[in-house]
Amino acid sequence: MEMLTRKPMRLQGYDYSQNGAYFVTVCVKNHNLLLWANVGADIIRPHETPILSEYGMVVDEAINRIAVCYPCIKVDKYCIMSNHIHLLILMSLDDSGRIISAPTLSIIIGQMKRFVSKKIGFSFWQKSFFEHIIRNEKGYQKIWQYIDENPMKWELDEYYDGV
Question: Which single residue of 47, 66, 74, 107 could bond 103 by disulfide (Cβ 3.0 to 4.6 Å)?
Answer without folding.
Answer: 107
